[in-house]
Amino acid sequence: MGDLDVLRFLYQRVVVPFEVAQEIYVGGKQAFGVSVFAQAEWLDVQSRPVVLPPFLQNSLDVGEAAAIQTALSLSLPLVCIDEVVGRRVARLCGLTVTGTVGLLLKAQQLGYQLSMPTAIARMQEHGIWLSSAVVQFALAQRH
């Protein structure tokens, strides 16, 4: 959406694996969300890559694998992953999974003011693919 306010509203601690931070920065300083991410000093951005077991390394993209392994290493119960395979693997590892739309819905349920149609449109404008089923579900949740 262009800011991280929803995450700050929902969670006291947000851990960002080193690998995920690198994926964010790869687009350069002018890329969508990079400056907001860089200025969010409250994020717990890990300073080193996590050691990935072969199963995760060979099954998922490095960001998803790092998110799962970081959660397991730090005993964090929840990961935010949007990709279907990554979500499935995270659940197999005993983690609770949410996605970007799930975070927005939870924030909305807890009183955070946001327009779901605007949020979805903004995500799609910036290349975030959402299935029509996810979009329909999110838009059907009225509060």
Write a short abstract of this structure.
The protein has 143 residues and is mostly helical. It is built from 9 helices and 4 strands; from the N terminus they run αβααβααβαβααα.
Largest sheet: 2 strands, parallel
Molecular shape: globular
Structural class given helices, strands, pairing? mainly alpha
Rg over C-alpha atoms, rounded to the nearest angstrom: 15 Å
How many strands?
4
Gross CATH architecture of the largest domain: 3-Layer(aba) Sandwich
Overall description:
The protein is mainly α. The protein has helices at residues 5-10, 18-25, 34-39, 54-59, 62-73, 84-92, 100-109, 116-125, 132-140; strands at 15-16, 44-45, 78-80, 96-98. The protein has a two-stranded parallel ribbon. Strand 3, helix 6 (84-92) and strand 4 (96-98) form a beta-alpha-beta unit. Helix 2 runs antiparallel to helix 5 (62-73). 16% of the residues are buried.
